[in-house]
């Protein structure tokens, strides 16, 4: 049986990866120079790595691209909804106003 050498190729550039330059991650071996985020191109480390469909991302870009969307997840103020609290027993018409509800200072008129 002839001796054969398995050539490992980098999934990013498809070039041979030699032992001295390999970075194992996501079940594959990468060149050190190819081991960077697919979006922002920042160099990755094993602690800053997230993988999706064979592609590498830094955790920030991964969360931005594949993370949850909606209230509290970077959707911005335009995505916020106003809960009236009816499921908690609040009555319609008891919504809070944007006016302060503390007592007026002494001598101030209570008329608006």
TrEMBL record:
Residues 82-112 are annotated as: Disordered. Keywords: LIM domain, Metal-binding, Nucleus, Repeat, Zinc. Residues 8-68 form the LIM zinc-binding domain. Gene3D superfamilies: Cysteine Rich Protein. It is found in: Nucleus. Residues 91-100 have a biased composition (Polar residues). InterPro entries: Znf_LIM. Residues 102-112 have a biased composition (Pro residues). Pfam families: LIM (PF00412). GO terms for cellular component: nucleus; Z disc. CDD domains: LIM_CRP_like (cd09326). SMART domains: LIM (SM00132). One of its GO terms (biological process) is sarcomere organization. Its main location: nucleus. One of its GO terms (molecular function) is metal ion binding. This is LIM zinc-binding domain-containing protein. It comes from Adineta ricciae.
């Amino acid at each position: 049986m002839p001796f054969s050498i398995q050539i490992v190729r980098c999934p990013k550039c498809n070039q041979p990866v030699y032992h001295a330059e390999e970075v194992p991650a996501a079940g594959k071996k990468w060149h050190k120079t190819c081991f960077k985020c697919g979006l922002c191109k920042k160099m990755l480390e094993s602690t800053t790595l997230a993988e999706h469909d064979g592609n590498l991302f830094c955790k920030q870009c991964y969360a931005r691209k594949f993370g949850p969307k909606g209230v509290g997840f970077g959707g911005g103020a335009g995505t916020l909804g106003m809960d009236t609290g009816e499921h908690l027993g609040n009555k319609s018409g008891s919504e809070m106003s944007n006016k302060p509800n503390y007592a007026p200072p002494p001598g101030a008129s209570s008329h608006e």
